[in-house]
Structure formats: structure tokens, C-alpha cells
Specification:
- With 151 residues, the chain is α+β, with helices and mostly antiparallel strands.
- It is built from four helices and nine strands; from the N terminus they run βαβαβββββαββα.
- The protein has a seven-stranded antiparallel β-sheet with strand order 1-8-9-2-7-5-4.
- A hairpin with a 2-residue loop joins strand 4 and strand 5.
């Protein structure tokens, strides 16, 4: 993770979905959007990606208007284009069409001063899968606690 500054991580997505694959994408942003994102003023809990006309689009992503902006400030909720290679987009399109998978943003970070997004190819978990995840997390926590007490 050298040279990367994590802006936000979508831990809820990893609980609700099984992440099968991930892809690093750039985002086409306006000037004030970048400043708001650097300040951490964005929300992506309901966001997802969609493939339309051979392009990746991020839907439901909210970036708060920059407080020091002027009349040319950006619109908070709009579809933003994701930047990826055509071959990668075609591969994602096949996966989404065949298996009914979802494209969910997992992480936003700065890489060399540029905002990047880790996009996950995810499959929704059933209730029993979520219970299993909770059980594994609790077991790991108990084992770590016991190990710590023995030291």
C-alpha cells in the first residue's frame, strides 16, 4: 500500500456480498469533487456500478459540494464515469450477464494524487452466509483474546 492513502473502505459490502474479483478504476471527476473527496465528504453506501454502452458508470455515489466552491460547484448526486480498459469492461460485462453478479465499490483511495476506486465483482450473501461470517468473526476474536491472555 505504498503511495496510497485510503479515503474510505466499504466494510458493509464485504459483509453483505462475497467478493469474487476486484478491479482498480479511475473516476472522471470535476475539480471541486476531488477537493471534497480529499476532505472525506462523500458517501457510497448505496452506490453500485453499471455497464452502459460499453462504459462503466458509478450510480448512487454522493459527493458533498465543496464548501469553499463558487457557482461552478458540482452536483452532489450524478452518475460518474469509471475509467477502465475496454477488455476489462467486456470481461465484467460477461460476468454480470452470465452469473447475475453485482459491481460494488469496495474502497476509495488516492494513488499518486489521483482518486482511484476498487470495484468488486460481488455475489449477494444469503442469511445463513451472514450468520456464518458473524460466527467466524466471533471465533477469531475469542481466539485472539485467549492468545493475548496467555502471553
Amino acid at each position: 500500500m505504498e503511495g496510497k492513502k485510503i479515503l474510505a473502505d466499504n466494510r458493509k459490502a464485504r459483509f453483505n456480498y462475497m467478493v469474487l474479483d476486484s478491479l482498480e478504476c479511475g473516476i472522471a471527476l470535476q475539480g471541486t469533487e476531488v477537493k471534497s473527496m480529499r476532505a472525506g465528504k462523500f458517501s457510497f453506501t448505496d452506490a453500485y456500478a453499471r455497464i452502459r454502452n460499453g462504459e462503466l458508470w458509478l450510480v448512487g455515489f454522493h459527493i458533498t459540494p465543496y464548501e469553499f466552491g463558487n457557482i461552478f460547484n458540482h452536483e452532489p448526486i450524478r452518475e460518474r464515469r469509471l475509467l477502465a480498459h475496454k477488455d476489462e469492461i467486456k470481461r465484467l460485462q460477461r460476468k454480470v450477464d452470465e452469473k447475475g453478479l453485482t459491481l460494488v465499490p469496495l474502497k476509495f483511495y488516492l494513488k499518486g494524487g489521483i482518486v482511484k476506486l476498487e470495484l468488486g465483482v460481488c455475489q449477494g450473501k444469503k442469511l445463513h452466509d451472514k450468520r456464518q461470517s458473524i460466527k467466524e468473526r466471533d471465533d477469531k476474536r475469542a481466539a485472539d483474546r485467549e492468545f493475548k491472555q496467555r502471553l
